[in-house]
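Summary of Year 1 activities. Much of the first year was spent building the evaluation harness for sequence design. The harness presents a backbone, in tokenized form, and records the residue chosen at every position. We chose the following record to illustrate the format because it has been used consistently in internal testing since the harness was completed.
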């Protein structure tokens, strides 16, 4: 990651911008040198200074303080040497120093290193001024004109420091936005968790208590089986068994609602091996069920659970909306995987359909489509109803099926 950051920071685009900046900074002094001092020695001094400052400016991003001191020393040495030989340089030769000061303010963190660098810069300037007065003639000694050029340079440092402060403020604002987004997401998660707990509590109070009471009464009737007619004993047994199974599944559902970390069920989820028992309980409840089960081997557990729940819901809908009708259940291999068909005939005798919220088909469709399958449901030509689900075998996701 560090190499990638360096590549982005010093990539071809950054190098091209640096080269363009070097050209823009050095060109003004070159253009003005002929009007300042056109001697050959003056041009040689300027060429040497430009070579040093141009190379140093290319490294200003990584070594801001070092580049600043190098450029300052090169500038002072060139000016002192030129004055000793009665040669002047253009005042625009100090322009790279302004760029270096801006870079120091923009990139160098404040602290001891900056203080040391600025102290060294003051020492270099004072030493250069002393050397200039010792080696140069009166006409080439540093005076107020040099101070006028250097006085504007601290402004560039102030501009660079303002730019660094602006970048720091933007980064802090971005961090605050990220923290606020995380807090908002956490509050939403907590609100959803509280709602799940509330729903679980409502289901426990309303459904679980009534279901438990139903099972208790069924067991009471079973204990007094000797007083019941012969036809009533199997019905009571089936009622107690169905109540206990529904109670177990409801407890697993409540655990899922109370927390995702408790989503693992306490009992194995039903599969195709439990289909015959499901059909037998339906027959014991009075349904007329014909079944043809050709179960492929090696089906994933999510596929088996989805087929089981589809048959279970379709049988419930048939008993509710077409009581007494014959139901045909078919499970067989299909070109796309496994196919499950549950078809019931019209109600015999015709009667009023029982109540229902209409959510059974929605739940079946969600289960099947979660595994990449297709579900079709609708009336048949004979007035019955058909639920047909086709599930792929190879692309089943173990986490896709809901409990």
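For this record, the design step produced the sequence shown next.
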């Amino acid at each position: 990651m560090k190499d990638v950051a360096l590549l982005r920071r010093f990539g071809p685009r950054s190098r091209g911008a640096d080269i363009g900046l070097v050209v823009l900074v050095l060109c003004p002094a070159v253009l003005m040198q002929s009007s300042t001092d056109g001697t050959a020695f003056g041009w040689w001094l300027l060429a040497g200074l430009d070579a040093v400052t141009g190379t140093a400016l290319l490294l200003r991003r990584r070594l801001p303080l070092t580049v600043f001191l190098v450029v300052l020393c090169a500038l002072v040495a060139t000016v002192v040497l030129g004055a000793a030989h009665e040669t002047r340089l253009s005042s625009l030769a100090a322009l790279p120093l302004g760029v270096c000061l801006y870079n120091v303010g923009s990139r160098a963190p404040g602290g001891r290193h900056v203080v040391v660098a600025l102290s060294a810069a003051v020492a270099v300037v004072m030493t250069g001024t002393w050397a200039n007065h010792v080696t140069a003639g009166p006409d080439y000694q540093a005076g107020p004109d040099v101070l006028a050029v250097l006085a504007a340079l601290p402004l560039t440092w102030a501009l660079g420091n303002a730019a660094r402060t602006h970048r720091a403020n933007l980064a802090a604002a971005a961090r605050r936005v990220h923290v606020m987004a995380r807090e908002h997401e956490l509050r939403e998660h907590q609100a959803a968790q509280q709602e799940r707990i509330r729903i679980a509590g409502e289901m426990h109070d309303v459904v679980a208590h009534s279901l438990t009471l139903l099972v208790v009464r069924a067991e009471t009737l079973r204990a007094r089986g000797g007083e019941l007619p012969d036809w009533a004993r199997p019905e009571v047994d089936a009622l107690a068994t169905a109540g206990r199974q529904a109670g177990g599944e409801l407890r697993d559902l409540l655990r899922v609602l109370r927390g995702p970390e408790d989503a693992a069920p306490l009992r194995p989820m039903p599969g195709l091996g439990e289909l015959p028992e499901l059909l037998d309980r339906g027959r014991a409840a009075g349904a007329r069920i014909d079944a043809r089960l050709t179960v492929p081997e090696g089906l994933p557990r999510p596929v088996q659970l989805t087929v089981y729940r589809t048959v279970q819901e379709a049988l419930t809908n048939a008993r509710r909306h077409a009581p007494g009708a014959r139901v045909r259940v078919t499970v067989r291999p299909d070109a796309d995987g496994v196919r499950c068909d549950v078809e019931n005939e019209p109600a015999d005798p015709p009667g009023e359909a029982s109540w229902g919220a209409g959510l059974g088909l929605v739940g079946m469709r969600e289960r099947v489509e979660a595994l990449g399958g297709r579900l079709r449901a609708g009336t048949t030509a004979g007035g019955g109803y058909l639920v047909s689900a086709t599930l792929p075998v190879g692309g089943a996701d173990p986490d896709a099926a809901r409990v």
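The radius of gyration is 44 Å. Quantitative recovery figures across the full test set are reported in Table 2.
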